[in-house]
């Protein structure tokens, strides 16, 4: 089984475990702030299922209908997750408003805080794991999941701080106020997830460092050529697409030019793994003198 799919299965299991602890905290305390944290974790479960399906589908090989593969399916998962995050914020805001109008002191706050803190600690560890694997696999679905789970961690920190102060201050409305602040933070996170995911679907350059890296790889491996220009790259999940014009001496044979192309392609695939590379070879008269200079 692919590592990304195993990780998505792990996310589902972790989300269910954390949901159980946070729902228990809410049931014991009746705190609307703890309820808001539990609601966000319910969305984590739904997002984990969506990510699992997207990763399974994106791993399918290219076919006649999808000659460039199915990698962009991960972006749809990330878009869905961003939408779910925003929906969570609306639910929490509604609950916070009702609690503001009818405030009550939470029961057994220490026990609820302890359970919520345990769920937050689990999420913190798992978010770091997701981020490491997501970066290594260049997976939009796993990276979106990591950001969402980390938002849940910060939510838990804020909720714990707020609920802890309720019995100290005796101000019952502090509980829904904390929940409202959680909703605002979730809106910001949802916006960022949606923004990056839509950018991926639109082939927006989301990683300038990767573009510079590809240009450096071309410069190192295109020995014998003169320059490369009109270099373009895009990402679709784990797949990188690269295309450029390679200028070679006019008298160079087709075989020699092909060998240079092979060297460049091997360098890109060594660095990025799955890649679709298109190189248009041109004679030196086509040089623009503004592209990638080849290291001699």
Automatic annotation (TrEMBL):
It is a multi-pass membrane protein. Keywords: Membrane, Transmembrane, Transmembrane helix, Transport. Residues 11-202 form the Cation efflux protein transmembrane domain. It comes from the Bacteria. The chain crosses the membrane at residues 34-55, 75-93, 113-130. It is found in: Membrane. Residues 207-284 form the Cation efflux protein cytoplasmic domain. Coiled coil: none annotated. InterPro entries: Cation_efflux, Cation_efflux_CTD, Cation_efflux_CTD_sf, Cation_efflux_TM, Cation_efflux_TMD_sf, CDF_Transporter. Belongs to the cation diffusion facilitator (CDF) transporter (TC 2.A.4) family. PANTHER family: MITOCHONDRIAL METAL TRANSPORTER 1-RELATED. This is Cation diffusion facilitator family transporter. It comes from Rhizosaccharibacter radicis. The lineage of its organism: Bacteria, Pseudomonadati, Pseudomonadota, Alphaproteobacteria, Acetobacterales.
